[in-house]
């Protein structure tokens, strides 16, 4: 077994079992945007926003948490307080396609309470995070086959929970062309030592992970895929000591890679996307998808 296999085993059966079948495709009020509904492997409806690609490139956009269970995939259209604005106009201007899939416990799937769902999964030897990642991988597979999309030019990105899903997916799916995370990359062991880990939602619990690897070591499985992490040191989830430990481990994992991890570090930023982060992300995506 590879290290990826070892990590996947910790996620539970949903990582491998997750499937998405397109059940509905209808136009949105916004030009070019489509509203999709998938059915997952458990028969649950999973809404998504889809913007077809105009140039072959595409982004799998992972939405955030922020204790706003009502937002979900509408973050792509309307943004959220932690963002400098919605990303849909940016992707449209760049000609990129984008797919944003509603995660369990959010948006129209918010009838599933996060804590209760996470506990039930754990009692059955499964994880909510494994379900989320499994569905995102199934979404990636659908996007790679969408008309007009070049499967070699797909990136994944997000902020906070979305960023965590993005870089985990990058670690487990080597076919991605680029990975972007904002406001999330931080060494879990260091966060535990300070108690800051308790700020994370129960969705993120993966039993046994830290016996196997560190945050940076896990993220390093993505090598040699180009990766960009954006952090602020006034963010509860990315304090300097925890970020620098994760950065050290990630840099070591990429030591023999032809590309190096990239970072945007703002010592005065909180849990947010700054203008410099957005500008860098925009150029990073152009560099690796155009």
Helix percentage range: 25-40%
Tell the overall outline: globular
Q: Whole-number radius of gyration?
A: 17 Å
Please give the CATH class: Alpha Beta
Q: Name the poorly predicted regions.
A: none
The pLDDT mean sits at 96
How far from one another are the termini? 35 Å
Question: What amount of the residues lies in strands?
Answer: 15-25%
For this structure, the quaternary state is single chain
Into how many domains do the coordinates divide? 1
Enumerate how many helices there are, as a single number: 12
Could you say which structural class the secondary elements and strand pairing correspond to? alpha/beta
Q: Would you tell me which CATH topology applies?
A: Rossmann fold
What summary fits the major beta sheet?
9 strands, mixed
Q: Please report the total strand number as a whole number.
A: 9
- Can you write the helix and strand succession as a string? HHEEEEHHEHHEHEHHHEHEH
The CATH superfamily appears as: Alpha/Beta hydrolase fold, catalytic domain
**Can you list the strand order of the major beta sheet?**
1-2-3-5-4-6-7-8-9
CATH architecture verdict: 3-Layer(aba) Sandwich
Could you describe the 3D structure shown?
The protein has helices at 3-11, 14-17, 75-78, 88-94, 114-123, 128-144, 161-172, 188-194, 209-212, 215-219, 240-253, 275-289; strands at residues 20-27, 34-40, 45-51, 58-62, 97-101, 154-159, 178-182, 227-232, 262-266. Helix content is 37%, strand content 19%. It is α/β, with parallel strands linked by helices and 290 residues long. The chain starts with a helix and ends with a helix. The longest helix has 17 residues, at 128-144. α8 (188-194) packs antiparallel against α11 (240-253). The protein is globular and about 50 Å long. It has a nine-stranded mixed β-sheet, sandwiched between helices. β8 (227-232), α11 (240-253) and β9 form a beta-alpha-beta unit. It has one domain (3-289): Rossmann fold (3-Layer(aba) Sandwich), CATH 3.40.50.1820. It is built from twelve helices and nine strands.
């Amino acid at each position: 077994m590879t290290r990826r296999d070892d990590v996947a085993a910790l996620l539970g059966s949903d990582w491998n079992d997750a499937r998405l079948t397109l059940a509905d495709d209808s136009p949105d009020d916004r030009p070019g945007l489509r509203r999709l509904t998938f059915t997952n492997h458990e028969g649950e409806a999973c809404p998504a926003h889809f913007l077809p690609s105009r140039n072959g490139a595409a982004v799998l956009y992972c939405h955030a948490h922020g204790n706003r269970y009502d937002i979900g995939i509408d973050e792509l259209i309307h943004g959220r307080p932690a963002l400098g604005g919605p990303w849909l106009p940016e992707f449209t201007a760049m000609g990129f396609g984008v797919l944003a899939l509603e995660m369990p416990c959010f948006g129209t799937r918010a009838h599933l309470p996060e804590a209760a769902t996470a506990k039930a999964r754990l009692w059955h030897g499964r994880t909510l995070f494994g379900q989320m990642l499994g569905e995102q991988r199934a979404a990636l597979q659908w996007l790679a086959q969408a008309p007009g999309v070049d499967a070699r030019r797909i990136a994944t990105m997000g902020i906070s929970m979305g960023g965590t899903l993005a870089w985990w997916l990058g670690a487990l799916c080597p076919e991605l062309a680029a990975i972007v995370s904002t406001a999330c990359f931080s060494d879990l062991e260091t966060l535990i030592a300070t108690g800051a880990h308790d700020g994370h939602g129960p969705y993120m619990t993966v039993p046994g992970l830290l016996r196997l690897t560190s945050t940076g070591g896990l993220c390093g499985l993505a090598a040699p895929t180009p990766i960009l992490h954006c952090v602020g040191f006034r963010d509860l989830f990315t304090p300097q000591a925890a970020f620098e430990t994760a950065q050290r481990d990630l840099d070591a994992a990429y030591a023999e890679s032809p590309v190096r991890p990239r970072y945007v570090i703002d010592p005065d930023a909180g849990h947010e996307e700054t203008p410099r982060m957005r500008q860098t992300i925009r150029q990073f995506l152009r560099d690796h998808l155009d």
